[in-house]
Specification:
CATH class of the largest domain: Alpha Beta
CATH superfamily of the largest domain: FAD/NAD(P)-binding domain
Largest sheet: 8 strands, mixed
Distance between the termini: 32 Å
Radius of gyration: 21 Å
Number of helices: 7
CATH topology of the largest domain: FAD/NAD(P)-binding domain
Strand content: 25-35%
Length: about 350
């Protein structure tokens, strides 16, 4: 039987970063993950936006999470010689004087002053965009190539023979007092980073997941953007003449497949933003494991201390995952406690 320090279930963004930090600390790991091209991590646009919501507030823990994420992405880029982190300002498209005044009022707040810039870049894109009253630029935003991150790290796991690509079978998991066993593996702990699959995992039935479906279009258009555009939906440069457009946010849905309703909504929003023709070349959908209070789930099971979880990253996974994977890795090494607002100890079984 092969012995490792930790067995990790799932190689989405949560499992990838937890694996990274555990390996950095000198631990041995083994990852079990059936590849799913329509998983939330695979479909995610990878936008880091430091200002969030209609109330125009700074993203939770932004001053801590942003520099930590940036340094982590740079570090992984250097290790694997790939390009993941792309600083990209976000251009908010404003239709009315009230919207503009709201942004200006919020930019005076010392909490937001370093993130909001009163520069109207709309004229730069006049050939592409419908007329808007004003635009505002959000700084310290970026785009992360999540697909490349996942595929690069997966190739590394394969090369080290640390990956099982079969679907995890909970019935095969055996718990002992001080370790776990799964198939031919023995680990001190097993950590579940399995996204929406956790909702069907008997060990995590007590956690209040709220699944949300998101859908994204890939379009082809003859334009050049140096900003991510945001107006109800985002438009993100994704390669030569290709752009991601999304996303929807649906609480009630029948399955994980793309829908005509979402396609029509996204197309209508694109036409309200763009005055040039575009071609839809792809349509993807995924179910996100979200949490009502928008705080991720971290920690060890309240009954079975050999079992842990990192999940519930929602739409901000590329910002949250590096920092909280690091915090969980520290906890597993006995170095730190978890912040109370993300520690699953707060939820009763």
């Amino acid at each position: 039987m092969r012995k490792v320090d930790y067995i990790i279930v799932g190689q989405g963004i949560a499992g990838t970063f937890l694996s990274w930090f555990l390996l950095k600390s000198g631990k041995t790991i083994f990852v079990t993950d059936r590849k799913n091209d329509s998983s939330a991590s695979s479909v995610a646009a990878g936008i880091i936006h430091p200002v969030t919501g209609r109330r125009i507030v700074k993203t939770w823990m932004a001053d801590t999470l942003l520099p930590f994420a940036e340094s982590t992405y740079w570090e992984i880029e250097k290790r694997f010689d790939c390009s993941l982190f792309h600083p990209f300002p976000i251009m908010e498209l404003l239709s009315t004087a009230k919207e503009y005044n709201d942004w200006m009022a919020r930019s005076a707040d010392s909490e937001l002053a370093s993130y909001i810039e009163n520069i109207d870049n709309g004229a730069n894109y006049a050939a592409y965009l419908q007329p808007f009253f004003k635009t505002i630029t959000v700084k310290k935003s970026s785009w992360i190539n999540i697909g490349l991150l996942l595929s690069t790290f997966r190739t590394y796991l394969e090369s080290e023979k640390n990956l099982d690509e079969e679907k995890f079978d909970t019935s095969l998991l055996k718990l002992a007092d001080d370790h776990v066993e799964y198939k031919n593996l023995m680990g001190s702990k097993i950590i579940f980073c399995e996204g929406t699959e956790a909702m069907h995992n008997p060990y995590w039935k007590h956690l209040p997941f709220i699944p949300a479906k998101g859908e994204v279009l890939t379009i082809k258009a003859n334009m050049t953007l140096e900003h991510i555009l945001n107006r109800k939906i985002y438009i993100l440069p994704a390669g030569k003449d290709l752009f991601k457009a999304g996303s929807t946010y649906t609480w009630n849905f029948e399955n994980e497949f793309p829908t005509n309703e979402a396609k029509e909504f996204l197309t209508a929003q694109l036409r309200s933003i763009l005055k040039i023709p575009f071609e839809i070349v792809d349509h993807q959908a995924a179910i996100r494991p979200t949490v009502k209070n928008r705080r991720p789930f971290l920690g060890l099971h309240p009954v079975y201390s050999q079992i842990g979880i990192l999940n519930g990253l929602g739409t901000k996974g590329c910002l949250l995952a590096p920092y909280f994977a690091s915090r969980l890795a520290d906890l597993l090494s006995g170095e730190n406690d978890l912040p109370a607002e993300v520690d699953i100890a707060q939820y009763k079984t």
